Amino acid sequence: MLGVADYGAFVAAILIFLAIPGPGNLALITSTSKGGIRGGLAATFGVIAGDQVLMWAAVAGVATLLVAYPAAFHAVQWLGAAYLAWLGIKMLLAKPGAQPILNIQPRHYFKQAAVITLLNPKAIVFYMAFFPLFVDPARHQGLLTFGVMAATVAVLTFLYGLGATLLTHFLAERMRANPVIGRVLEKAAGVCLIGFGVKLAVSK
Ligand SMILES: NC(=[NH2+])NCCC[C@H](N)C(=O)O
């Protein structure tokens, strides 16, 4: 379709990519549990913004550049590892109730989710290595093809983010009755982020 090699497989690949546990999902979940539905949606748009940057960077040939200069790729990896670990440590050290739920700043969730996406190894690999495979070299229609792919990614990510936000919000409502669970989950999320950072740092 319009130069996309196999549109059905492309959609399936994006859905799998979205559902894999990782920093992206963690960003959606923590933003929703802290900032409610507005926080979750802001994070969703942050992820979409980060996606678009990565995708168009891949289109512009950054993927080729990173292959040609592995040191640049490793620098991005280390940056991502450090950022995730730093976020994780902040979550671990957060005092209970330090961030009042009333003080919602959607801009904060947007920015944080965008940065997480830009440095998310899964997102980087998806756009730099995987995404180009779906461009049909013979039937390629230039910007139109990339536009269709970019819009598909954005729409699917929005629907996924909306679903994740509503689900998390619903579960969070029930959890508010028991703040200890929320605190434990925040620590667990912090440990996961540090783990993602370490994993990223030691992956070749
Ligand atoms: N649209 C995105 N960039 N999503 C990131 C998803 C990658 C992976 N599922 C994660 O949670 O980290």
Automatic annotation (TrEMBL):
| Protein name in the entry | LysE family transporter
Which terms in the GO cellular component ontology are assigned? Answer: plasma membrane
Pfam family membership, one: LysE
Q: Localized where?
A: Cell membrane
What superkingdom does the record give?
Bacteria
Question: InterPro entries, alphabetically?
Answer: LeuE-type (IPR001123)
Lineage start: Bacteria, Pseudomonadati, Pseudomonadota, Betaproteobacteria, Burkholderiales
* Regions crossing the membrane: 6-29, 41-69, 113-134, 146-172
Membrane topology qualifier: Multi-pass membrane protein
